[in-house]
Amino acid sequence: MKKENIMEKKQKEIGRRSFLKVLGAGAAISTAALYGCGNASRNISPESTVTGEIPTDKMTYRTNPSTGDQVSLLGYGCMRLPTISKPDAGEGADEIDQATVNRLTDYALAHGVNYFDTSPAYCKGRSEHAMGIALSRHPRDSYFIATKLSNFSPGSWSREASTAMYRNSFKELQVDYIDYLLLHGIGMGGMDALKGRYLENGMLDFLVREREAGRIRNLGFSYHGDIEVFDYLLSRHDEFQWNFVQIQLNYVDWKHAKETNPRNTDAEYLYGELTKRGIPAIIMEPLLGGRLSDVPTHILSLLKQREPERSVASWAFRFAGTWPGVLTVLSGMTYMEHLQDNLRTYAPLKTLTDEDKAFLEDTAQLMLKYPTVPCNDCKYCMPCPYGIDIPAILIHYNKCVNEGNVPESSQDENYRKARRAFLVGYDRSVSRLRQANHCIGCNQCSHHCPQNIQIPEQLQRIDRFVE
């Protein structure tokens, strides 16, 4: 079931000029109008983005060897869609800003992006529905939709519950076939979870049959942390014929994944195992949870000195896109500025030289001196039964680490100034009733973390610094 070249098809059905009219004047939205599912208050650094004309016909594409799909190297991650805040309605009462989602989707499509990645678990279960509305306004063969079987809870492991989740994705996305279907979060919970979620209940065999029937065009999995599970599934590639695998890859985790998180695996190994088998890689976390766009000041200076006209984030996106076995690189683009900056990076891609890669390895070594927590603000740990705002706490801590406001001891020269900056920012970022001192160590959160963070330990460590 091969698709025609997407750009050619799009030009046949609707001219480029008429397509751009869909955007209207509203495409030039301001940052202040956008709030993401991930973190509404995340700032955009003036060094983050660059200006300049964005071409509509220069997107870099990669070919999926299984289906011949021409996939945009920039993929739209839909985990942090913009929302409308309702400050007086209580926690979790915000709603998806559908008008803004539509504008961002239109703009992405108009500039060559054709891969959209969502899940039943994203945006508190609302991402699929919002993307179904946004994408259904366009010809079905002008985009590829990826979603996941996100049956994390043991209560959803049964064949009936898992099948119901799968069927509901078709309804929410308003489609009769799914282009890319993933077993979500493979590795979380180890081999026992893999067996319970997909093997013993027959779901994997069911999904293979769905692919044969054409309701799934490409079948793969996203990998999170347990190398035994990754190697096991690849060992059965001849049986399951994986069309793609989604992995975490960035210039720090390429060789130093275990230094950022002991349970992770170097991306160099993951990518190498996939290329041996001719399996395309889809990339998540190219920015390492945002840490490769919000870097310490002296690292920012090095990056800007080398290529002043490029954003800091573009280095990470170029690194991920340079590897030829990469099909698409996902970015959760809540803000128009992020989308535009990424479009400049991939339309077209300027691949890294060996000298560039060596420079980024040196940069990775510098980044490792800043012991941030590997939180990517996915909010899978939420809600906390005791009301703790876990992502906000960890994000504030990481920000202060990068700014040098987490001194190692009271003997540090800038201890008083740094501690004050930490505490003032802490109270502004996280209300006191939701801070780390309220953690009782129940550990309900850690089991849901795709980065395998031992969350209570981190919260207790941060609280000790606060106290």
Describe this protein's structure.
- The protein is of the alpha/beta class.
- It is built from 18 helices and twelve strands.
- The strands form three sheets. An eight-stranded parallel beta barrel has the order 3-6-7-8-9-10-11-12, surrounded by six helices. A two-stranded antiparallel sheet has the order 1-2.
- A hairpin with a 6-residue loop joins strand 1 and strand 2.
- Helix 16 (390-402) packs across helix 18.
- It is globular and about 65 Å long.
- Mean pLDDT is 85; it is low at 1-36 and 38-49.
Labels describing this entry:
8-stranded parallel barrel; alpha/beta; globular; single chain
Write the layout of secondary structure elements.
Elements: H1 6-13, H2 16-21, E1 61-63, E2 70-72, E3 74-77, E4 83-84, E5 95-96, H3 98-110, E6 115-117, H4 127-135, E7 144-149, H5 159-173, E8 178-186, H6 190-199, H7 203-212, E9 216-223, H8 227-235, H9 237-240, E10 244-248, H10 253-260, H11 267-276, E11 281-284, H12 297-306, H13 312-322, E12 326-332, H14 336-346, H15 354-367, H16 390-402, H17 415-429, H18 455-466
Residues in helices, as a percent range: 40-55%
What is Rg?
22 Å
What is the overall silhouette? globular
Q: Estimate what percentage of residues fall within beta strands.
A: 5-15%
Low-confidence runs: 1-36, 38-49
Q: What is the count of β-strands?
A: 12
Spatial strand sequence of the major β-sheet: 3-6-7-8-9-10-11-12
Distance between the termini: 61 Å
Q: Could you give a quick summary of the protein structure above?
A:
The chain is an alpha/beta fold and 467 residues long. The protein is 40% helix and 12% strand.
